[in-house]
Design a protein that fits this description.
alpha/beta; DHBP synthase; Rossmann fold; 7-stranded mixed beta sheet; 15 helices; 14 strands; disordered C terminus
């Protein structure tokens, strides 16, 4: 596990790592920090040409369809680092993508993209198979500590087991405007990159049998600064108040900025939205799916808090499905809303139309173009 964590750290620093697999050894360079010098070193060490590995979401935006989660695009000596980065994540690459055809990925390529996602990097990488004549030199660089080597089995095991290594780190009482009796409990993931907080509201002895629970993905721009591009801040504060009014419960504040893509990529997506894309299309341009969040961490937090039956405060059917499949009984679902604004209408519409979120009360025909809906409207529970 520690080697995988070190690999994630190195990739976030823009360094190259080595992945070992039965299929061979490949060098992996992240898109962030890629320049012509890095590309030249990969070419020197490679057997054949390096290749750009991108997700199927990115390929679809480039007009290419594959049946695998990702694919390789072979590079040649004329391709600059700038061109490669544009192919990987620009809305409209200046140079037309050459007709070299996508090639199905192998285990090392898939492991490379897993590391990028875990590191909150753009899900793309330049990879190169190690040439036989460079094998001894590469081995020496690994032995000296200059180059970090990991194997695909370790990456797969880490990805599968990461939520189980969630550690409860610290806790303190933090009275809030919406709920004076609130205790913050902090959990940390094994790689140290993400920390999640459970807001334990009220006295657990007084909670109802079905504990009111909100799964709230962190949103720096909305929660802290009151961004008008989303309704996250209002949902957060409304959720705390609602849980307090119900006699207490838990709000899980999850480090899943931008539906799981991280703050840096969320800001990139915002720039693409300013060019006319909706929130989901912008994420796909960067190589992400409609929603990259997983809720295994939330399930583990609830397990450590000994909560198994809940009233879930959400407009998102995926959260209900994730809780139910993870062994948590969702007794009831209650809607939780923020205001509709000129700036967030397109965002909320995309969530409703493309993500299936229950937002008809907010986006109904009576809503106005300016501010306008009440911050909170109850929604009936789904059929049980």
């Amino acid at each position: 596990m520690r080697q995988v964590e070190r690999a994630i750290f190195d990739l976030r620093r823009g360094l190259t790592v080595l992945i070992d697999a039965p299929e061979g050894r490949i060098l992996v360079a992240p898109l962030e920090g890629l320049d012509d010098d890095v590309l030249a070193r990969l070419r020197d060490d490679a057997q054949g040409a390096p290749r750009l590995v991108v997700s199927q979401h990115r390929l679809a935006r480039l007009g290419l369809t594959v049946d695998t989660p990702a694919a390789r695009l072979p590079l040649d000596d004329r391709d600059s680092a700038e061109t490669v980065v544009e192919w990987a994540c620009a809305r409209t690459p200046r140079d037309t993508l050459p007709d070299r055809g996508p090639i199905a990925t192998e285990a090392p390529d898939d492991a490379a993209l897993t590391l990028m996602r875990r590191g909150l990097l753009i899900p793309a990488a330049v990879t190169a198979e190690v040439a036989p004549e460079r094998a001894r030199e590469i081995t020496a660089r690994v032995a000296s500590g200059e180059l970090l080597a990991i194997d695909t089995a370790a990456v797969a095991a880490y990805e599968a087991g990461a939520p189980r290594f969630l550690r409860r780190i610290s806790a303190a009482d933090v009275p809030l405007a919406e709920s004076e009796r609130t205790r913050f409990v902090l959990f940390r993931e094994a790689d140290g990159l993400r920390e999640h907080v459970a807001l334990v509201i009220g006295d657990p002895a007084d909670w109802s049998e079905a504990v009111p629970v909100r799964l709230h993905s962190a949103c720096l721009t909305g929660d802290l600064f009151g961004s008008l591009r989303c309704d996250c801040g209002e949902q957060l504060r409304t959720s705390v108040a609602r849980i307090s009014e119900c006699g207490g419960g838990v709000l899980l504040y999850l480090a899943q900025e931008g539906r799981g893509i991280g703050l840096a990529n969320k800001l990139r997506a915002y720039s693409l939205q300013d060019e006319g894309l909706d929130t989901m299309d912008a994420d796909q341009v960067l190589g992400f799916g409609d929603d990259e969040r997983e809720y295994n961490v939330a399930l583990e937090m609830l397990a450590q808090l000994e909560i198994r039956r809940i009233e879930l405060l959400t407009n998102n059917p995926t959260k209900i499905q994730a809780m139910s499949q993870g062994g948590v009984t969702v007794v009831q679902r209650s809607g939780i809303y923020g205001r509709l604004t000129v700036q967030n209408r397109r965002y909320l519409t995309a969530k409703a139309v493309r993500g299936g979120h229950w937002l008809e009360h907010v986006l109904g025909p009576a809503t106005q173009e300016e501010d306008a809906t009440p911050a909170e409207r109850p929604h009936p529970a789904p059929p049980r």
